[in-house]
Design goal:
The protein is α+β, with helices and mostly antiparallel strands. It has helices at residues 6-15, 67-75, 86-95; strands spanning 18-27, 31-41, 46-57, 62-65, 97-102, 105-114, 117-122.
Length: 130
C-alpha cells in the first residue's frame, strides 16, 4: 500500500501548483495595461511569470495585444514585476515613453504601433542642432 504523510502530500501539491492570474499593471483615462501571468507557488515563495501583456482601449472597448512589448523587455532582461512600477507603465500609456533606471543607468523606450499591436524600441531624443 502506498503511504505518504499528510505534510509531505500538502508540500508536494503546493510546490507543483501553478495558478493563472490576469491583473492590471497601470491605467489611464484611455487605456488599461493588463498582464496575464502564471504564478508558481512554493512553501514560502510565489513566482509570477508574465506570459502576455495587452491593452484595453476604453474608447473603442477593444483589446490590443502588446506581446511585442513583453518580448522586448525580456530581451532587454527587464523584469516587469521587479524592475518596473505602475508609474513607469502609466507614463508609457500617457507619454508613449517608458523610462527604466537600473543603478545609475537610465534608458528610455518609445512605444510604437504596428499592425500586430503595440511594441517598443530604444528611444533616442533628438538633439537640438545648430
Amino acid at each position: 500500500m502506498f503511504q505518504i504523510n499528510r505534510k509531505e502530500l500538502i508540500q508536494s501539491l503546493i510546490q507543483r501548483s501553478t495558478y493563472c492570474l490576469s491583473a492590471p499593471l497601470a491605467e489611464t483615462n484611455a487605456y488599461k495595461l493588463i498582464v496575464d501571468c502564471n504564478i508558481f507557488m512554493g512553501i514560502d515563495t510565489m513566482v509570477p511569470i508574465p506570459n502576455n501583456l495587452y491593452i484595453f482601449d476604453k474608447t473603442t472597448q477593444k483589446t490590443v495585444f502588446v506581446s511585442a512589448i513583453n518580448e522586448y523587455l525580456k530581451k532587454e532582461c527587464i523584469n516587469i514585476f521587479r524592475d518596473l512600477n505602475a508609474n513607469d507603465f502609466k507614463n508609457s500609456l500617457e507619454k508613449q515613453v517608458l523610462t527604466y533606471t537600473k543603478g545609475n543607468v537610465e534608458r528610455s523606450f518609445e512605444r510604437i504601433l504596428s499592425p500586430t499591436g503595440w511594441g517598443l524600441k530604444e528611444y533616442v531624443p533628438l538633439k537640438k542642432g545648430y
